Hints:
alpha/beta; about 20% strand; elongated; single chain; 20 helices; about 40% helix
Amino acid sequence: MASEGKTDFNQNDTLKTAIEERNKKIKADYFFTSFLQKDEELEALKKHISILEYRRERITFKSRLKRFLKKFVPKFIYTILKKALKISLKIAGYKSEVPGFKPTYTKGKALKKIKLFSKQPLISILIPVNNVTTKFLRAAVKSVENQYYQNWELCIAYDDSTNQEAIAFLKNIQNPKIRTTYLSQNGNISKASNEALKIASGEYIGLLNNNDTLALDALFEIADCINERNPDIIYSDEDKISNTSKYSSPIHKPEFSPDLLTSQNYIGHFLVIKKAIIESVGGFEEGLEGAQDYDLILKSVEKTKLIYRIPKILYHERISEDSSSIVNAKPYAQEAMRKSLVNFTKRNQINAEVLEGKDPYTFRLKRVLDGTPLVSIIIPFKDRSDLLEMCINSILKKSSYRNFEIIGVSNNSTEEKTFNVMKMFESNDSRIKFYELNIAFNYSSINNFGALFCSGEHLILLNNDIEIISTDWIEAMLEHSQRPEIGIVGAKLYYPDDTIQHAGVIIGLVGVAGHSHRGYNRQNPGYHSRLNVIQNYSALTGACIMLKSDLYKKLGGLNHSKLSVAYNDIDLCLRAIELNYLNIFTPYCEAYHYESISRGCDTVPEKQKRFRDEINFMLKRHEKTIQNIDPYYNPNLTLSNEDFSLR
């Protein structure tokens, strides 16, 4: 067998050391050149400097004002002003630094726009109440009463007969738009939510926890979206609020990502759904307390594709000891979420096992393979027999899936050792074949040529500088590639120093496209666990992708005429989306990527010209896609770095 070849890649320390040193230089060159070549980077730097200057001026102003007040104002007045000053500066600082927090419109402008709305939908806000501190319940109610958009009703279901202070507060409410129903027996949050739903008469239903608050413009933004989009489901960004009213931890979410949703409840708050849809799915499921909203979301998205995200912080979740936002605070919620996903798979006839994910409140829908179809692995290379041996040996030694073939394509190889290695692999394993295409390097043409000799139902495009880590890497990609709605499946790739090389591609990041979380430590879960969960992305790197053979043919393969080296993988993914396929990233296919080590960097003038031409082609061919914010990203996050930091 080929796995018995002369070179053991696990013992080749010299090769690994050389690769690591080379790769460090490549990463340094990448960040340096990308910074110099992009005006956006300079603008971002200027903006950052201006923010720092503003902060310094604000601190200086604050200090001077305090000294003035302390010297000339009576002590008791100074104490009051000092407290007010501290609060105002604290909130103003948060608003100025966190995108999406500050309302887009002032109240006056919002009211003028509301008058122009052709639709003035009644929005019913449901609050199930149980075991809540009265001051937090009061804050929740007040946040609804203070809304810019006033065509709302508040429907409260009270499920706690022991809190007399809260009962007194609710019974003293005089606002006719606020209605409260009292449960005769203590039930649970699902039952209370259903009781609140019964007294709701609005076209849309919004969900608010009894100790959280809404932003002042929350319902205005919802109504605006309804007028613009006519949606069935709406959700927004959110953040946390402490018991002392300090805001923190903004969560900026992607647009609807079905595979991210089955990995975690990323939709969260603020959630608004048409009442007709909620009623059609049977409301809130009793027995799934702690995940009743997640279950409702999973059932509701099955009924519509009119799902919209508002990329603004419209909801403030209270941080408390029993909040599910705190790790392990609600152990029963994890199990309820798992049961919700099991129910989801049954309703949709998905043959999958629901497993707990790597992080709390995350999951993996591990889909059962539909047979064992042949998978064809295409590996382009030029000499570097050491890399070729490393790559193929890692496949042969690590892969638990055995029904594959390897199609190696030599591009202008000249070294005798390379041809000896090719003969060795072919003679040791009948699944391995080599072909030659001796033309000027054209990554697209080489892969397209290799595809002509493939017999598999699925193709894997694999760089020769890839070393497989996970034994079930083929199964991890195949479970998604077999799905009719999935286009291209991508892997989680690491640099030799165990930092992230690829975990999905974001369009428009640092230019045409950038890699999600590049440079993060391998153990880091990423932005809200996005390094550790299956999810949809617009594009994936062609260093390790799988797709159906028929789809590859349908797309015409990689674009060999315009994208010979760069961005051909991105173009392929975007063209798949144009045909209404979803692309997907799985962290369960892991490998090392010794990036571009066999080909080197593009420093020669003619290569730089080719690279500029490829950029220009992408900017023209996918102009609208690149100009718009990637749907699986968020406009409040930076386009200047690959780290999910704030804009």
